[in-house]
Structure formats: structure tokens, C-alpha cells
Write a structure and sequence with these properties.
8-stranded mixed β-sheet, two-stranded antiparallel sheet, disordered N terminus
């Protein structure tokens, strides 16, 4: 496994190349000692399966775009039974001129040794794996990763930790994450086409949220969540323990996500 954090996002050396709207957006709100939050807000997701594009829309808005939510939803890849994967959100961003980095914890798709060795052609490994394994979700998501890599997207495999989340947020980047809503909410598993809560017949469910802040003193992170109702109140943002968040992200592997998606603003045309 990689021994240190690889983060190619614009940090201090690249900050002058960020657009004015991005510079404005990255100013955090500091409400008290140890608490840090980015000014990102979400619209409600229109239905049960559009959490991903809704989170992506929130990040686009954070970077100063005013694109309507329905256009983002319409343009993004949608699985047969609804929902999407983070990599397809990343592809949409890259096609629009943004840059994107995915921190993956999905061992169903990626082998850790692909990142520990130099010179590994991950696209070639993904293609070979797809020819051998007939898992339906793997077959569906692999073309997305192949496109993402061909567009210049970046993949990282590093330890998921509070320090990593803090580092990304302090640089002004909200974090879209594909995670387990079953674990995030501690809700019953869901069953059938209407996602009926059923603790016996049900299966774990996936979800997308945006992590937008942290509180080091209380070991919490701020979650911006487009879904209602959820068990944390009527607001579309809430604080939860960082342990709950990390567990939910890692358990996203059950639904073939388990990742952090970082959208970097496009460079200025005159840079």
C-alpha cells in the first residue's frame, strides 16, 4: 500500500490558477475552535435514486456554476434499476473541464498491489479482469473506470483516516463519497423495487453524500445529505462521528462504491 498521501489537487502552489469563483468558494466558515466547514449546500434529491447527481450538482454550485439540477441528472449515467457509481459522476466532471481524483477502497474492483507497484497499467488490469469475472456490477462499472482513466482522471489507494479527510477539506475541496446508507443511518436493510425496509429479507443500500467539514474537538464530520427523511433531523446537513463516517465509506464496497471523489476546479483559460 502507498506509504504516504498522494494528492495532486491544486494546493498552495496552484492556488493562483483557480478561478475567482473557486477562490471565493473555498473560504471556510469557522464557528468555533476546532470546527471547520465549507460553504456547500444541496438541493433535495428528486427521487430515491438521484443522490449522486444531486451531490455532484452541489459541488458544481460550490465552484460557481449555475447549471440546473435536472440537466445534471439527465446527463449522468443511470443504472437499469436506478442509481449510479461515483466514477460516472467523475467522468461527467472531467468532460466538463474539471479535474477529478478518486480515492478508492473498493477491493471488488481494484487489487491493492496495482497501486503499490510502479509501472502497473491499471486500465489493462481492469480490462483483463472484466474478461474473466462475470459479476454484473463489475461488468457495469469497469467501462466507467476505463473512460475515467482515458480522460485523465486520477486514482489513489491510501489509508482512509481522519487526517486524510481533514487534509482534503482544508484545501477547500468538498468530498463526494459513495457509502453505505444502511450503516450511515443504522437503518434496516431494504427489499424489493420500492426499497421496503425489511430486516430479514433486505439488502444493504448505497448512497451519496458530501462531506463538507470537521470538528476535531468532538471528532465529527459535517455531512451534506440530499436525502429526506433521515434519522438526523429535518436539515440537509448534520454532524456525525468520524468513526461512523469512515465505517460507512468503507462499507460502501457492498454496493460497489467505497470511495472519495474530489472535483478540482478547471484551470482559468488565461492561466
Amino acid at each position: 500500500m502507498v506509504a504516504h498521501i498522494h494528492f495532486d489537487a491544486p494546493g498552495s502552489p496552484h492556488l493562483p490558477n483557480m478561478p475567482v469563483t473557486a477562490l471565493r468558494a473555498t473560504r471556510p466558515k469557522l464557528s468555533r475552535a476546532g470546527e471547520f466547514r465549507l460553504p456547500i449546500h444541496t438541493l433535495p434529491q428528486p427521487d430515491e435514486t438521484t443522490c449522486g447527481p444531486t451531490c455532484l450538482h452541489a459541488v458544481y454550485s460550490y465552484w460557481g456554476e449555475a447549471e440546473p439540477l435536472d440537466q445534471v441528472i439527465e446527463r449522468n449515467y443511470r443504472m437499469q434499476h436506478g442509481g449510479t457509481f461515483a466514477v460516472f459522476l467523475a467522468c461527467d466532471a472531467v468532460r466538463k473541464g474539471y479535474r477529478a481524483t478518486i480515492y478508492t477502497y473498493n477491493l471488488m474492483v481494484f487489487d491493492p498491489t496495482w497501486f503499490a507497484k510502479t509501472g502497473v497499467d491499471i486500465a489493462e488490469r481492469l480490462q483483463r479482469q472484466r474478461e474473466i469475472k462475470m459479476d454484473a456490477r463489475l461488468q457495469e462499472v469497469t467501462p466507467g473506470y476505463l473512460e475515467f482513466l482515458s480522460l485523465g482522471g486520477r486514482l489513489r489507494f491510501v489509508d482512509l483516516s481522519p487526517a486524510l479527510l481533514h487534509k482534503i477539506l482544508r484545501r477547500g475541496f468538498p468530498i463526494i463519497t459513495g457509502l453505505s446508507s444502511t450503516y450511515l443511518y443504522h437503518n434496516p436493510r431494504e427489499y424489493g423495487p420500492t426499497d421496503t425496509k425489511d430486516d430479514v429479507r433486505g439488502f444493504p443500500s448505497g448512497h451519496f453524500v458530501v462531506i463538507a467539514g470537521y470538528d476535531t474537538a468532538r471528532r465529527r464530520v459535517l455531512v451534506v445529505d440530499p436525502y429526506q427523511p433521515h434519522p438526523y433531523g429535518s436539515s440537509y446537513e448534520y454532524w456525525i462521528s468520524i468513526d461512523r463516517a469512515v465505517g460507512a465509506i468503507l462499507l460502501g464496497i457492498v454496493t460497489h462504491d467505497a470511495n472519495l471523489l474530489i472535483i478540482h476546479p478547471p484551470p482559468r483559460s488565461d492561466a
